[in-house]
TrEMBL record:
Annotated organism of origin: Pinctada imbricata (Atlantic pearl-oyster)
UniProt cross-references to InterPro entries, sorted A to Z: METL9, SAM-dependent_MTases_sf
Gene3D superfamilies to which the protein is assigned, alphabetical: Vaccinia Virus protein VP39
Keywords: Signal
Keyword Signal: yes
Name of the protein this chain belongs to: Methyltransferase-like protein 9
GO molecular function per UniProt: protein-L-histidine N-pros-methyltransferase activity
Length: 328
């Protein structure tokens, strides 16, 4: 085992050295692409390409992940937009991704297991089983700004719907006395329970009890569930009167895909958004989806939805529109 570790470390350091030299050569003569080393092994080539990509990512502040043209917003929404940037906690998550991607043998093991389990398990459940693919949406500072609360503030009940492995739930849970969650995938429930002290509620009856919630998380769920409109209406019914808020994250451009609970992966309830750009679809979500569900926007932003990567890329990124909603 120690042997394997040492061999992988040696190979990685060697590839890193080669990548550093070749990056310098490319900068010196950018049109002389023949200077890029020819690596025959597909595995070594994948690792080499990833190391080169990581070097570029480390030098990038990724301002475009956060960019939003507020000029395109109607007046009543403009001052509700919060501009964020890549803060230390986000950079730390990325650094952790670069490190994990370096565990070459673990990554190979994951790839093999994934291709076998893929025959009878959903990608979400495989990730849950392998404890891989953790997500990052907001830092501690960012969630506090979105919720408009100070450090040390505590609410009563938090409910996170479609909580996944609990990585994001954890960020919100520290601001609440009690945490509740729902999750469709059994392996994700298992991971969630190990990470967050929360009570898991049934996916079909979470809105039937006597509990009300100060905050309901609906993060990256509306495009992954069968009945997003029903979920929006149900959330409204179980918010604590006066104080209750909903935090919704939606990946744009909007491309719904239901993993479980739908044979053709098409949701039973359709959300149809107007426009193609991030800004157009954000406004359409507010006006054509949240407003009819009797919600108004308190604050909103654009953030990267980051996911731990694999052998080929240290991380993957999608664009999230995030909204804090209050009942109208
Ligand atoms: C894209 S993941 C989002 C996970 C986490 N909220 C995040 O933002 O990283 C969507 C999750 O919702 C779960 N899910 C799908 N439909 C659901 C439903 N009706 N009720 C609860 N969870 C559901 C899936 O199993 C999956 O883990």
């Amino acid at each position: 085992m120690v042997h394997l570790y040492e061999v992988s470390l040696f190979i990685l350091n060697f590839l890193r050295l080669v990548s550093k030299c070749s990056t310098k050569v490319q900068v010196a003569s950018s049109d002389n692409m023949s200077q890029i080393p020819r690596i025959r092994s597909p595995l070594a080539r994948a690792v080499y390409n990833r190391i080169v990509e990581d070097q570029c990512q480390r030098d990038d502040d990724h301002h475009y992940w956060y960019s939003f043209n507020t000029e395109l917003l109607p007046d009543y929404l403009r001052q509700k937009f919060i501009q964020f940037d890549q803060d230390k906690e986000t950079s730390d998550f990325l650094e952790n991704c670069y490190e994990k991607a370096d565990w070459v043998f673990t990554q190979i093991g994951h790839s093999i297991t994934k291709s076998i389990l893929g025959w009878f398990m959903t990608p979400t459940s495989i990730n849950g089983l392998l404890s891989r693919g953790s997500m990052f949406i907001f830092s501690d500072d960012q969630i506090r700004m979105l919720l408009g609360v100070e450090d040390g503030w505590k609410g009563d009940n938090l409910l996170d719907l479609g909580a996944g492995d609990g990585m994001v739930t954890q960020k919100m849970a520290k601001y609440f006395r009690r945490t509740y969650a729902t999750e469709m995938s059994p392996t994700m429930v298992w991971r969630l329970q190990r990470k967050v002290t929360s009570k898991i509620l049934d996916v079909n009856s979470w809105n039937n009890g006597n509990l009300t919630y100060d905050l309901i998380g609906c993060l990256n769920l509306l495009d992954r569930c069968n009945k997003p409109i029903s979920i929006l209406h149900s959330m409204r019914q179980v918010l604590t009167p006066g104080v209750g808020r909903v935090i919704v994250a939606v990946v744009l451009p909007f491309k719904p895909y239901v993993e479980q609970d739908s044979k053709d992966h098409i949701p039973k309830e359709a959300i149809l958004l107007k426009g193609h750009t991030f800004e157009e679809q954000t406004v359409s979500l507010i006006e054509d989806v949240f407003k009819p569900a009797m919600f108004e926007v308190e604050r909103f932003t654009r953030l990267p939805y980051l996911c731990e990567g694999d052998l080929h890329h240290s991380f993957y990124v999608l664009s999230d529109a995030l909204f804090v909603l209050k009942p109208r």
